[in-house]
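Subject: design request, 453 residues
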């Protein structure tokens, strides 16, 4: 009989909660509302770039070093993906060192892929290097259905034989060849996987309607340093002339524009004054423009030096429409909702990238926000103050959006499942505190498990 069963028998009519401290705990952020955020933060490298740069290390035998890498949970998971493929991975400070063997493994298992969708980005490099690969299908998550059809269709055009069996995508190709590929939507992940397959293919590949995000430009820069021939990085047409081999390099990761944008919105939501260092404001033009329209004073410093956002009065309502880059980033949608929830007037927020990104607004409503959604539109009527409540993070960005809303709520907000936030925000609590936020990380029994007899 397990210890839990024994304790239940012992507890009899007592709620199981009494036994929970030993078995089920949840980490949450406890936020006390009402503080203006004031001060300076420094941003690290981009999660959505470094994970793909780590996958790109598989393309060349030897030592790859990635600097300005964020210390986040997703990097730990990707390191484990690479280790299980036979690489040695060490992390010191903001540098990741990857030693890739002559013949890396060919399988990325479900246990890791289900925890982090970006593991799928080993598909292109391993198919190009090893001619075969088995990757567990990542499935969808809280922000919507996350297909792989563009990845698969593009690789098939390059000559790959691809099947789906028992939850795995299995791809084989003696040597991929160049092809012209049109993407129905400028998918970031598909552009990256096809790019990493095409650099070692025989002949020239053209990816049309490719993604243009700064993270795409970053991986193109690294691949070019490795010896690849890529033209059109940052435009919607990428042309790649395949080469026979690549060499490992040392590469600096681009700053994280989503973390950067998060701090900018935090300043506006709390009517604060925040300087964001080591960030590239030009990667956030539309978002900073929206903040200016909302009444913030945005002062830009030089390239990669950062900027300052100051909001003296109540933000004005602004309408936001998410789009692929250079449009307003979908990953900053929860910050736009949090701003709209405390702004003066009604805002219309439109999501064009994911089909379930508004899921978290139910939690915003628990905080007293007036949010109504209909398909990919949300109408938000702002309030002077929200009211603190227990809520649950459903994904990385939603979690941070709820913390931001909690800063402008009366009383205490408890955001559960903060492992989501740890996946993408290095030193989040420390940085928040350095700006004056009243926030703490606490571990409590997970009462969603409570069963009363
Ligand atoms: C990347 O996801 C980011 N993740 C996401 O950030 C980001 O929201 C997204 O790009 C858009 O900017 C990483 O880089 C790890 P997509 P990705 O392929 O590559 C559909 C965060 O919080 N689609 O551009 O998965 C798809 O369903 C995360 O950091 C297909 O239908 O995004 C979605 O609706 C969340 N078939 C749309 O395209 C495909 O084969 C955009 O997806 C591929 C995509």
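Subject: RE: design request

Done. Sequence follows.
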């Amino acid at each position: 009989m397990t210890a839990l069963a024994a304790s239940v028998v012992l507890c009899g009519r007592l709620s199981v909660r009494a036994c929970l401290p030993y078995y089920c705990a949840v980490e949450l952020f406890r936020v006390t509302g009402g503080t203006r955020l004031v001060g300076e933060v420094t941003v690290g490298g981009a999660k959505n770039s470094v994970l793909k740069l780590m996958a790109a290390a598989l393309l060349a035998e030897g030592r790859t070093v990635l600097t300005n890498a964020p210390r986040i949970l997703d990097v730990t998971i990707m390191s484990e993906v690479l280790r299980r493929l036979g690489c040695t991975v060490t992390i010191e400070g903001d540098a990741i060192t990857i030693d890739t063997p002559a013949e890396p493994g060919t399988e990325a298992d479900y246990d890791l892929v289900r925890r982090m969708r970006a593991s799928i980005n080993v598909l292109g490099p391993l198919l190009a290097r090893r001619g075969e690969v088995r990757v567990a299908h990542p499935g969808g998550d809280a922000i919507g259905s996350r297909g792989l059809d563009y990845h698969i269709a593009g690789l098939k055009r390059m000559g790959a034989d691809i099947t789906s069996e028992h939850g795995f995508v299995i791809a084989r190709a003696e040597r991929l060849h160049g092809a012209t590929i049109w993407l129905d939507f400028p998918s970031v992940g598909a552009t990256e996987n096809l790019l990493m397959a095409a650099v070692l293919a025989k002949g020239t590949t053209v990816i049309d309607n490719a993604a243009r995000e700064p993270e795409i430009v970053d991986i193109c820069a690294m691949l070019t340093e490795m010896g690849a021939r890529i033209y059109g990085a940052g435009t919607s047409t990428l042309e790649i002339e395949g080469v026979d081999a690549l060499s490992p390099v040392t590469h600096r990761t681009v700053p994280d524009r989503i973390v950067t944008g998060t701090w900018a919105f935090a300043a506006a939501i709390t009517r604060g004054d925040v300087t964001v260092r080591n960030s590239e404001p030009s990667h956030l033009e539309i978002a900073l423009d929206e903040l200016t329209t909302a009444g913030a004073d945005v002062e830009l410093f030089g390239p990669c030096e950062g900027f300052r956002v100051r909001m003296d009065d109540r933000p004005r309502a602004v309408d936001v429409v998410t789009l692929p880059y250079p449009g307003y980033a979908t990953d900053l949608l929860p910050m736009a909702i949090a701003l709209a929830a405390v702004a003066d007037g009604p805002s219309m927020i439109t999501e064009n990238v994911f089909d379930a990104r508004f899921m978290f607004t139910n939690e915003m409503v628990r905080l007293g926000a007036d949010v109504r959604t209909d398909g990919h539109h949300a109408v938000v009527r702002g309030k002077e103050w929200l009211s603190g409540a227990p809520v649950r993070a459903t994904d990385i960005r939603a979690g941070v959006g709820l913390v931001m809303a909690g800063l402008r709520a009366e009383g205490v907000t408890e955001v559960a499942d903060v492992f989501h936030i740890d996946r993408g925000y290095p030193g989040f609590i420390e940085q928040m505190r350095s700006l004056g936020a009243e926030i703490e990380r606490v571990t409590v029994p997970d009462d969603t498990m409570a069963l009363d007899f």
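The radius of gyration is 23 Å.
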